[in-house]
Design a protein that fits this description.
By secondary structure, the protein is mainly beta. The protein has a domain of 39 residues. It contains no helices and five strands. The strands form two sheets. The protein has a three-stranded antiparallel β-sheet, with no helix packed on it. A two-stranded antiparallel sheet has the order 1-2. The radius of gyration is 18 Å and the shape is flat. This is Small CPxCG-related zinc finger protein.
Length: 65
Amino acid sequence: MPRFICPHCHSPVDPASMDFATGPGAYYRVCPVCDEAVLVALAAGLHAAEPEPAARNAPEPELAR
């Protein structure tokens, strides 16, 4: 039986036991363990957000001494 790892609670969940939900522009499944919505697919016409490019001249983090 296939298992899905919930990104919120990290429980292995049977996908068939997850309830369906919809939101503005996306389709979700609800984890039966933690009751959090997990994104399954974007609605037609939407695209995933692109990650922001890292700053080219970002200052170096200070090291703890």
